[in-house]
Amino acid sequence: MATFGEQIRLLREEAKLSLREVAEQIGIDTSLLGKIERNDRQPTKEKIKLVAKFFNLDEKDLMKEFLSDQIAYKIMEEEADIDTLKVAEMKIEYLKSKK
Fold it and tell me: Tell me, what DSSP letter sits at residue 75?
């Protein structure tokens, strides 16, 4: 299991591409891509779309990976437990039912 940033780094390394090469291809700054790979910065949805397109990945799957990181970091930050996730899941179902 890897974080979103770690997954991007692994994809880049498997393709034998430098940070600069990937950053140029997707149109972002090299230092920003490095920070994303190290989980120091969070990408925008637009950046996630660009990465998905460049590596020929399903955009929804990549977004899912990103969002799961966000949820995990928040749970850890608040020192919550798995029960918090269960309650959140119930609230999601409730909110969906109201639409």
Answer: H
Q: Helices (H), strands (E): how many in the chain?
A: 6, 0
Tell the residue number behind the tokens 């989980």, with chain if given. Answer: 39
pTM (global) more than 0.90: no
Contact present, 10 and 31 (Cβ < 8 Å): no
Closest by CA position to 2, among listed 30, 37, 40, 51: 37
End-to-end Cα, the chain, rounded Å: 34
Angle between the 30-37 and 4-14 helix axes, to the nearest 10 degrees? 120
pLDDT digits (tens, 9 = 90+) for 28-53: 999 999 999 999 999 999 999 999 99
Interval 63-75: pLDDT, tens = 999 999 999 999 9
